[in-house]
Amino acid sequence: MKYLNVLFFNVLFFFGFIALQLIIQIPIVMLIKNLSEPWFSLIYAGKKTIEIRLHKGHFGELKLNDTIEFFNDDLGLRRKFCIKVLNIEMFDTFEELLSKHLSQALPTVKTIENGVKILRKIYSQEDELKYKVAAIHVERISAVVNEDLK
């Protein structure tokens, strides 16, 4: 009987927590990912509204309205904020994506060729062709939270 009481309390607590999140609109984080500078600050500032990722793993499973928490430890403290997925567009290549969305995806980059060079430092051409490229349209929904890493 004691086990059932504990189980009931845990289930009640879980559903109560979910209901509270829905009522006060606390984002339910679906994915937590590191994001390096300058991309972290550009998304936070609203200058970068498209995140480029290969369509694989967690990013291949994203859906509209999912929430991602991006974090960055570059300054010796953990900064983080949440974004909401507004849309996901699929492209065969980085060139195709950047020809349509260069200023939203890489706002500090002036040419498609330079954008591809930046992306090649992260992703191989083989993986690009194998998995395809996702243009994830995002909107920041929470402020930066700073946490000391000590």
TrEMBL record:
Residues 30-142 form the ASCH domain. The chain crosses the membrane at residues 6-32. The keyword Cell division does not apply. InterPro entries: ASCH_domain (IPR007374), PUA-like_sf (IPR015947). Pfam families: ASCH. Keywords: Membrane, Transmembrane, Transmembrane helix. It comes from the Eukaryota. This is ASCH domain-containing protein. It comes from Didymodactylos carnosus.
